[in-house]
Amino acid sequence: MQNTIANEGHNGADPNKIIVSERELTTDRIDFKDRILPTTAIPEVETASTLDRQPKPKQKKPIALILAGLGIGAIAASGFGYRYWQFISTHQTTDNATVVGHVHQISSKIGGTVAQVLVTDNQQVQPGQLLVKLDPQDYENKVQQAQAALESARRQANAAQAGIALASQTTTGKTSQAQGDVSTAQAGIATAQAVVQEARTGIPAAQAAVQEAQAGIPLAQSQVAQADANVQKTQADFNRYSSLYKQGAVAGQQLDTARAAYAVAQSQKSSALQSVQQAQARLAAAKVGVAQAQSKLAQAQEGITSARAKLAASRGGLQQATASGQQTAVSRSQYAAAQSAIAQSQASLKDAQLQLSYVNITAATAGRIGRKNVEVGNRVPAGSPLMAVVDNDYWVVANFKETQLDKIKSKQVVEVKLDAFPSHPFKGYVDSISPASGAQFSLLPPDNATGNFTKIVQRIPVKIRLDPQSIKGYDTRITPGMSAEVSVEIP
């Protein structure tokens, strides 16, 4: 056993080995299993003679390196923590931000068939550039029709103007006849007005009759209800007396009295029902009277209108008769009508020309084409969206928590990082702060006046303008909807 331990000792020192002397193994005869119980593993056993030849491990150097590493890490963590504290104390940041821009919807003001589509998706366009052209044939025909109507109105005006100078002789008889017609028409108006007044007087009386008839119905119905209650009572009495009479408890006279009372109650109920029917009939008759009075009033008013029309016609005839043989008034009226027709035709022509100009759909502003959904041959109605022009002017909307807005003010410097370009930060400044939170502009704003209210930190949109020099080279690559991270430098 000594030789085995000696040979194993030449393999080198191991800190996990247990050191046992030769004398302990030979003379004391110790139990080997008892000596290894306190240990967890016994790879080898070495003697004292072999231990002297093994090099002793240096344990101080790793401890010093570990302590030095911990010190350096503590210094680095302190420096990082100080820089992070300094940054968060002078900046407000959020990753709830997106790029926003003007999106101009392009639609047709008129309906028509698409003849040409002159742009493609994502193409850069300039203000006034032609985008889509509709088939102009229908609107060109309308312009020609308006021009023809204007020419016809002008010719009628010339003819009426020439007729003003024409003379027409009238006789005294025609003048007298026209004056008589005027007097007759005026008398007819007076008569018709009297009839109207009479008809108006009859309407309140008929309405009063309706109200009186309506008031009688509830009374008659109450009488029916009372009679019905009386019938039920007398019927119950009659049934009770009949039962008692059969049992011999009452005399026949009492049964007859109950039967007579029951018959009287039924008669009273029938009478009350007839009273209700009569009241309803009176109400219907009163309503018919109101309708007749109103019809009479309408007829009388029509008589006034007819009499006034006759008066107007009579006065027109009187004017023609007293025109000293000239159709001056008629010619002037025709000329005025022709002038009105000219003005109307000119307005129609301008409208037709304006509608024709709408066949050319142009860009309202500079930008890039997006969401194009129109092709040649499509039949588009008025107002239907054809495409969108995304303006080159865009900004960032950052939704800060309301607890972050204490020191955020207009014109403060902002650093913007877009997820699309993570290695290139952009510069900007705070333009303005929204007048309300995003929740207030939602379709269903939250109602905090409830019993189960839970306080939630709200988000307030902050508009941030980008520095044109900062986005130079990226201005055509930045698009609305991109996600962004925003850091506002605060004092």
- How many individual domains? 4
Oligomeric state of this protein:
single chain
CATH architecture of the largest domain: Beta Barrel
Spans with pLDDT under 50 lasting ≥5 residues? 1-52, 167-171
The mean pLDDT is 77
**What is the number of helices?**
9
Total beta-strand segments: 14
What is the helix fraction of residues, given as a range?
A: 40-55%
CATH class of the largest domain: Mainly Beta
Shape: flat
Taking the sheet with the most strands, its summary is: 6 strands, antiparallel, barrel
Q: How would you sum up this structure, described in words?
A:
This protein is of the alpha+beta class and 491 residues long. It folds into four domains: 2-51, no CATH class; 105-134 and 367-489, Elongation Factor Tu (Ef-tu), domain 3 (Beta Barrel); 138-167 and 328-357, Helix Hairpins (Orthogonal Bundle); 172-321, Helix Hairpins. The chain is built from nine helices and 14 strands. The protein has helices spanning 2-9, 22-26, 32-35, 48-51, 60-90, 137-163, 172-246, 252-321, 328-357, and strands at 18-19, 45-46, 91-107, 112-117, 124-125, 130-134, 360-362, 367-370, 379-380, 385-401, 413-418, 421-433, 459-466, 483-489. A six-stranded antiparallel β-barrel has the order 3-10-13-12-11-14. Helix 7 (172-246) packs antiparallel against helix 8 (252-321). The longest helix has 75 residues, at 172-246. The radius of gyration is 55 Å and the shape is flat. The two termini are 82 Å apart. The model is unreliable at 1-52 and 167-171 (pLDDT under 50).
